[in-house]
Amino acid sequence: GLTGVTGSTGATGPTGTAGITGVTGPTGTAGLTGVTGPTGATGSMGETGSTGVTGPTGATGLTGVTGSTGATGLTGTTGSTGATGITGVTGPTGATGLTGTTGSTGSTGISFTTNSMFAGNTTGSTIAVLLGGTSIPLPSNQDLDSFTVNGTNTTFTVPANGRYYITYQINPTATLLAGSRLILNGTTPIPGSIITPALAVSSYNNDVIVSLAAGNTVTLQLFGLVATVVLTGGGSSGAALTIIRLSG
Prior knowledge:
By secondary structure, this protein is mainly beta.
């Protein structure tokens, strides 16, 4: 027959005690990730908001510690010297000072050459030369400032101590090999005054400087050969002797 009308639901009975939770089943396999949908269109930029009020300035911080001084840099190149300035105008010359008084004249110095002499032979004398030496007479043109001469005009005496310049010449009429020299005090040849020719000569010329004492004598000689020698004459100098004092 027909289903009868459902009766009204009875009142709900009290909830029964929860049963024990059953064992959790195994986690199922993760499903596949779905396809990413397309990116949506970028929305329009919103309006810029108004600037906020500026906040108060913060308190000034403490000054930091001063750093160490850096190394001194290299000295720069010296600049070129500037141009020399124009020389200033020369000042006026000062007035000339008064001329000082002339000093007294000093004493006259010693003149050593006041002691000098000259003597020659222009008579054409004939000289008998001996091996040991023969003195030549010099009677001509004598100028004997303080010197003296012996009677044969062969020996001249020195008037004062000093250094003397002595020069002599002998000019025979023919060449000869005899030697010539000056003799000091009658016996001693004066070094440097001696001429001993290797070949025959027709004239002799020599000069020396020697220290002499007052009273010394000087003689001109030919020596070293036995011969008769004729000196040039007729006004020509057959022989001559000059002595000049140089210093005291």
